[in-house]
Amino acid sequence: MLVHDVGEYEKEYKPLILDPTVGYIRHYRDVHLSNWMSRNKDILEQWKPFENTTYNEPLKSKLLINVLQVLNEVYGT
Fold first, then answer.
1. Which pLDDT value is given to residue 15?
2. What is the residue-wise DSSP string for 10-77?
3. Most buried of the four, 11, 20, 31, 47, by CB within 10 Å?
4. Which residues of the chain have pLDDT under 50?
5. What's the mean per-residue pLDDT of the chain?
């Protein structure tokens, strides 16, 4: 899946493109937040079919802890 891409990378960073059989990145977005779906419907039509999914329940709390830890490291308390 490649919907967006970065136009400029920092320093000598080079992107790594994964073969879909190796792995993929899921992009999470609440499509109902601020009428996002209706505002972007024309663009989204290009990538049909798509679906709303939820994050794996057993991993949800670990993900939250990890995100909060990184935010604390980057921005402090």
1. 75
2. STT----PPPTTT--------TTGGGHHHHTHHHHGGG-S-------HHHHHHHHHHHHHHHHHHH--
3. 31
4. 1-2
5. 77
Residue in this structure with the two tokens 């490291």, named with its chain if needed: 73
Residue spans per domain, the chain: 1-77
Distance of alpha carbon 9 from alpha carbon 13, whole angstroms: 6
Query: Amino acid letter at 50?
Result: F
pLDDT of residue 69: 94
Maximum C-alpha span of the chain: 41
- Nearest alpha carbon to residue 28 among 69, 65, 63: 63
Residue type, 58: P
Instruction: Please list, in sequence order, all residues whose beta carbon lies within 8 angstroms of the beta carbon of residue 28, skipping any fewer than 6 positions away.
Output: 55
How far is residue 12's CA from residue 32's CA, in Å, rounded to a whole number? 38
